[in-house]
Amino acid sequence: MSRILIVEDTRLMRDSLVDVLTELDHEVVTAENGAEAVNMIAAGQVFDLIITDIIMPEMDGIEAIMEVQTMSPETPIIAISGGSARLEKAAGLDTAKRLGAVAVLEKPFEIDSLLAAIQVATGG
């Protein structure tokens, strides 16, 4: 299956995504923020798909998407967000879409919605 990078600062959400995707035979790697994800890609790690939260410490998902697009423009990105007190989730997701995310999902989302987005993103 696919090698997927999950960039999510909330442990419960990260662990849930790992559980679902590994059950479906995907190889899953995690990062707790955008900076960690960008460092992985800069170090030469290659992914078939990146799923990133938008609101995270150190480097948010928007910044991470911009960095990833320059280093690995062929890697599809799915953006997810539940918003925050400072940022409406729709605003962050709209920005992610404009920056090239192939799909955006508002938290909480159904697993079927995520799986459909993964299928579209990976062409399978």
UniProtKB/TrEMBL annotation:
GO terms for biological process: phosphorelay signal transduction system. Residues 3-122 form the Response regulatory domain. The modification 4-aspartylphosphate is found at D53. Keywords: Phosphoprotein. SMART domains: REC (SM00448). Gene3D superfamilies: 3.40.50.2300. InterPro entries: CheY-like_superfamily, Sig_transdc_resp-reg_receiver, ST_Response_Regulator. This is Regulator of chemotaxis and motility. It comes from Magnetospirillum gryphiswaldense (strain DSM 6361 / JCM 21280 / NBRC 15271 / MSR-1). The lineage of its organism: Bacteria, Pseudomonadati, Pseudomonadota, Alphaproteobacteria, Rhodospirillales. The gene is cheY.
